[in-house]
Amino acid sequence: MRSGDYWEFGPAGLLFDCDGVLVDSVLAAAPAWDAWARRHAPSFDFLRDAPHGMRPSEVVAGLVGREAAEEATAELVALEVEAAVHTREVGGSSRLAGALPRDRWAVVTSSNRAVALARLRSSGIALPPALVAAEDVPRGKPEPDPYLLGAYLLARRAEDCIVFEDSVPGIRSARAAGAGFVVGVGAASSGGDPDLVVPDLHRVRWREGALVIDATGAPG
Q1: Cα 141 versus chain centre, distance
Q2: Fewest CB within 10 A of the end CB: N or C in the chain?
Q3: How far is 33 from 48, CA to CA, in rounded Å?
Q4: Distance from the Cα of residue 193 to its chain's centroid
């Protein structure tokens, strides 16, 4: 339900991407990827070349080939877990996650499970009751599989869920799954044409059994 610049959602399930939505992992991911690239793909630069929203295994396979991808991905994951101490929360995410009922929300990420959990812990964000990670689905974002599984874990239909995403592949995944409403987080998310864009989660709150978004001043 919308009233001016305020949106209110009652019984919906809530599905959050992790990196760029709940956590700011750039300072953790960049050194891990660049250390990995020095051995496996010297021309790759994370800040310049990383296709955000995709599973690391798919990016790695594109750089080193399918035959070497499994071992190379395992090495990258280990580096990312080690570097997760440099992760910080996206504004408002810790407060919001701590207020949400346990049966109403899940995280749907393209990161591997160990990496996502390490980053959430480092950021001080409550661990989700359900987590869909890279290794849990046969096809990653932008395919619908991750968000279909996220909705299933909440015992809801995708059309009864609100998705929070920061990347174009993630928004496409949510759309393909049939998500009822998609909130883009950060200016870059506007390229995926979400229903609403907010700069971070500071103005997203859980209040009296409903999710309330104050979109005052948010990009159009």
Answers
A1: 10
A2: C
A3: 12
A4: 16
